[in-house]
Amino acid sequence: MTLSAVERCELLQLARRSIEAGLREGRRAAYPGSPILPPGGPAMSSFVTLRIKGELRGCCGTITAERDVGEDIWRNAWASAFADPRFAALGDAELSRWDIHISVLTPPEPLPVTSEAELLSVLRPNVDGLVLEMGGARATFLPAVWQQLQRPLDFVRQLKRKAGWPQEYWSPQLRALRYQAEEFGESD
Hints:
Oligomer: single chain
Number of helices: 4
Helix content: 25-40%
Strand content: 25-35%
Number of strands: 9
Low-confidence stretches: none
Shape: globular
CATH superfamily of the largest domain: Hypothetical protein ph0010, domain 1
CATH architecture of the largest domain: 2-Layer Sandwich
Distance between the termini: 19 Å
Largest sheet: 5 strands, antiparallel
């Protein structure tokens, strides 16, 4: 999916309104709908990332498409501001300092790999996001994470660490999925 400049602007405004409503109401407000995106559009998954002066302040999202993209971003913006377990809830004092970045994901596709070496050979730096899952554990890195972890080996091993596994860990039950993302933000 390629979003128009108008749609991108609308989605960024939706994310900001969701967070502002959360600050006012102390809870996630009902999704008001979008004047630009038709209701009942295709289900899409997204991540909303908040940064203050370039530093991560919250990031939440969905891997599997469950609702239309406007509602998904509305929910994920609120979660990034108030429910990311790595950070305290966003406060009024931070209101004018944060920047919103949105990633709209393509559906994840399984990678039929049987080893870390195979995974490294098919992973495309600066293009692919990656999901690793096994049992009840699952972790993902968005394609934007390549900016910090530029070597595929570092990307994969830090993702395994994020999931709670040793960096050298591999199991036949480990499942890898890749996706791409259309990424845009307020500071773009």
